[in-house]
Design brief:
By secondary structure, this protein is mainly alpha-helical. It is elongated, with a radius of gyration of 26 Å.
Length: 133
């Protein structure tokens, strides 16, 4: 029964995103259902709150939903080592690297600015502008 329900769900998902041509509607041949690889299964997962908070934070950094980033991580973890790495994992790694590099450059810039007393001067200028209003 579960296989039948999964099959019906797969067909419903397929036709929810794919239109039919007039020829397909009128033909006696049924259309091919989606491949098993494209059928998504819903599961429930319990995580400690701090772990889920970190998942949400990382998802926000990349502009994704927490479930999407978890799916990427799980797919990467179970991927066949002989298969190429999925593009989404490569893009995620590159984005993470860029964020870290940008943060490191910003931190270095602020360290230099303290040495040049630029931060203090900017704060004094800001206070003077506020007082003048």
């Amino acid at each position: 029964m579960a296989d039948k329900d999964a099959g019906l769900k797969a067909v419903a998902e397929h036709y929810g995103t794919h239109g039919l041509t007039e020829d397909e509607i009128m033909s006696a041949e049924p259309a091919e259902p989606p491949a098993a690889e494209s059928v998504m299964i819903t599961t429930s997962l319990r995580l400690p709150e701090p772990v889920m908070d970190e998942v949400r934070r990382r998802a926000r950094e990349r502009g994704l939903k927490p479930t999407a980033i978890m799916r990427e991580w799980i797919e990467a973890a179970v991927a066949d080592l002989e298969q190429p790495v999925p593009p989404s994992v490569v893009i995620a790694a590159a984005a993470r690297y860029q964020l870290r590099e940008r943060a490191a450059r910003s931190a270095l810039h602020f360290e230099r600015a303290r040495h040049w007393e630029a931060v203090g001067q900017a704060e004094r200028l800001h206070q003077a502008e506020k007082a003048a209003r």
